[in-house]
Amino acid sequence: MAQASEKMVAPVRFDDGTWEALAATTNANLCFQCGTCTAACPLADNTSMRVRRLIREAQFGETDPFVWKCMTCAECNASCPRGVDIVGIVRTLRGRQWRTRDVPKGLPTLLWGMYSDGNTFRLPPKQRASWMQDVKVPGKGSTLLFVGCAASYDPRAQRIARSVATLLNRAGVEYQVLGTEEVCCGEAARSVGHDALFRDLQARNTETFQKRGVERVIAISPHSFDALKAGQSANGGPEVVHYTQAIAELLDAGKLGKAAEKGTVTYHDPCYLGRHNGVYEAPRRLLELSGLKVVEMGNTRAQALCCGGGGGRMWMETDPPERTGARRVKEAAGTGAELLATACPYCISVFESERGSEAIPVTDVAELIVGRTKA
């Protein structure tokens, strides 16, 4: 019999139901708590984010508040020796928080805008085609240029859309855009754990794709590329490629002439193009074929440092220690390259806002190529 003076310790209650539900939708049960994920996480150095702890707490039915700090950059996925889909675990845990209405301020408004207006900017659908200044779209064929919310509404990202369309026009590609019929790809909803809205938006686009006879989709944003691959190609829909892949094909086929200009550029791999989908060479080939010498950063390809805009972080408050974009711009400037190029509207937005005293100009691959190729 225990002595009265002994301290009674409250039992730890293992929530089998929560863990079993997580294990049923992810491969979380493969995790053996080695901690490699924590070592790889770009937030671990400057914050208290610990991926291993996040998963361990989930085994007990708890959701670590740091689940909302995750940028879903997938460095943890790439480094895990057991192949655990940690990004999938984060999305699932976030989905659980929606059911208890315990989500960061601003996210419900974001999702309502996506549902009602079809975009992440809460702007009228009739403005979705405003990016098409001085660009003529053929409006025919089975190839679709999926512009996405950022390149449709954000003035800076609209320049990327116009550059991609100009390149397709120069190469004589027959393609169409959806204009006001396009709705958000749903990636933001998927990233913050709201699968129901993601599926709803994908279904709306699927209906439009079928009506338009779309067989191939060229996505401008890596986030749209990833979301459409998950919601379309994986379910028997049209082929989905990123614009860098499509333009690289055209250059390889001799459908775009190359300028003789020279220069140096360092390339940042967007997480949703590189680690999530393995597209590393197409953007570099475009840069090299246009006469530029690519100077690599220390962290490149699968080890590239995230800009900090993924995982819904574009719509949440980010404290200074969590801003990986500033670290990435500093790394780019350290290469001595004349330009920092990337292929993602989110990366462009983050880098331009986080440049600080670094003088290196930031540009999208399409913007560079359009000035260095000809019909």
Tally of distinct domains: 3
What percent of residues are in strands? 5-15%
Structural class: alpha/beta
Total number of helices? 16
Give the integer mean of the pLDDT values: 93
Query: Unreliable stretches, pLDDT < 50, 5 or more residues?
Result: none
Lateral strand order in the biggest sheet: 2-1-3-4
Question: Main traits of this protein?
Answer:
single chain, 375 residues, alpha/beta, Rossmann fold, 3 domains, four-stranded parallel beta sheet, 10 strands, globular
Protein model, in words:
This protein is an alpha/beta fold and 375 residues long. It has three domains: 84 residues, no CATH class; 143 residues, Rossmann fold (3-Layer(aba) Sandwich), CATH 3.40.50.1860; 119 residues, 3-Layer(aba) Sandwich (Rossmann fold). It has 16 helices and ten strands. It has a four-stranded parallel β-sheet with strand order 2-1-3-4. A four-stranded parallel β-sheet has the order 7-6-8-9, sandwiched between helices. A two-stranded antiparallel sheet has the order 5-10. It is globular. It starts with 15 loop residues before the first helix and ends with a strand.
